[in-house]
Every structure is written in structure tokens, then in C-alpha cells.
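Troubleshooting log. The previous structure file for this entry was overwritten by mistake, so regenerating from the original sequence record. Sequence copied from the archived sheet and checked twice against the printout by T.R.
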Amino acid sequence: MRGSEYTELMSLVEVVRQRSFRKAARQLGLTPSALSHTIRALEQRMQVRLLNRTTRSLSPTEAGSLLLERIAPAFDEIAAAVASARRLQDHPTGVVRLNVPGVAAHVVLAPLLPLFARAYPDIRLEVTIEDGLVDIVESGFDAGIRPGQRLQRDMIALRLTPDLRTAVVCAPAYLQARAAPKTPHDLAAHACLMYRWKESGRVYPWPLGRTGEAVDIQFDGTMSSNDLGMIMATCLAGGGIACLARELVAPYLASGQLVSLLEDWCQSSPGFFLYYPSRQTSAAVRAFIDFMKAHTG
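Regenerated output below.
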């Protein structure tokens, strides 16, 4: 249906409801003469008379009544749908689908979820934990969280955290039978627990170095996994040394379950960003974006 046809039919519905061209014109924001011209154009296009008009009365013809019987409920449905969409802007509801790496899920997202749920009880979050790169548009996600250097192109990005601090850690039990490494080069003699990217198969290079002294050490470690949870569990059990975000291991360092190594050599890594494909988002997605903007950064 063309826009002019929609306008003509909507005008017919309003004229019959108001039983007056003048009142209907006021409701539609038109002049009575413009409204009269619109109805004549509809009758000419349909080649049938739709209204009986006198100086004192107005009523639909048989053809007009038949047409109105079918289209009036449809216009009511459209009006109700528009009103519902407008209410969503004031009271967001629906589903927000997120793709998030494990570290961001634990460090950034999880602490804020209770507060978000209280603020927006009618929004449901569906969080997929995935450390590999994902095309969020193709995969049906509304937004994602990734480190700055791994953002997809042509995305709108919102910084959530400063650069992350790196920590090289192990359980005290691991050091009972061996000396702690003093330099990154000593790691070659240790059981290192490495993260391996699922999509490329490459091992994550530990960002180690200090002022005036670059470190370029390539090693596969004694165990690698694409699951940070497994690396963390193995590290806590005394199975080796891991390089993880300090924000992730901070509770274990505080409790003594892990100890920090090579602190002078630990460098920062890029912080996390929330990213999404378009500013034309649903009210629920916009509410989530605005919430994260207000509570992070």
C-alpha cells in the first residue's frame, strides 16, 4: 500500500467516526477542504461512491460500509501497536542478547547484573560466554564485549574498563617443590598454563616486560586450553603458573589461595569495550547500553 492510499483510507475512517468533515479534519490536522479533496480522490481511485453527504448529514454508502467494516479494525490494531511501541520507550521490556568473553563476564558484567535486574525487571539478558571472535550481527546478538584490540570493524564502541592489569600467579602448593621464577626466562623450566584461541589455535602471548627491557618469549607451556575456567581451576589446584587479569584473580590473591609472581614484569593489556552495530536499537538494548555507560568507564 502506498502512503497516499493509507492516508485516504485513514481519512475515510475518521470522517465516518466523527460524522463531520470539520471534526475529522481537526483530529487529522488538516483543513476541511483538504480532507474533502482526499475523500474525493479515494472515491475516484476506487470508482465508487463511499459517502452520502448533505449540508446537514453524512453517512457511508453500502460500499463505504463494507469497506469500513474491514479496514476500521485494522487501523485500530495499527494505532494500538504504535501506542505499545511508544510505551516501550518509557518502560523497556524484551530480550538483550550478549556475547561476552569469560573474563569480562566475571569482572565486568556479573557484579552489575543484580543492579540492572532491579532497575529493569522486564528486560531479560541472554549472555553467551565465548572467548573467540564472533560476528555478533551474523550470530544474532544485540551487543558484545571484547578487549579494545579485538573489536569488530564498523561497530559503535563504549569503553567499560581502563586497561587491565596482568598478573602471573600460582598456588602456594606449586612452589613447595620448586623455586619461584625471578625473570620471564625462568618460566621455561615451569609448568605454564596457557590460553589457546579456539579460532586460530594460537597461544596467548603473556604481556611481560619492563621499562627498557623488552621480553619476547615464545612457549607453549605444559597445558593449554581455550577455557579460562579450566586454567583457573588447574592453577588453584597447584598445577602450574597462569597469566590472568589481576581483576579476575584478586579475590584469590587476597585469600592466599594464589600468590603473585614477576610483578615487576607484568604489563597492562587493553581494557574491555561494549560494542554494538547500530544506533537504531530496541528500547531494551538502549537501556542496557545507557546502564553500562552510567556504571562503568
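The CA atoms of residues 193 and 242 lie 5 Å apart. Archived copy saved in two places this time.
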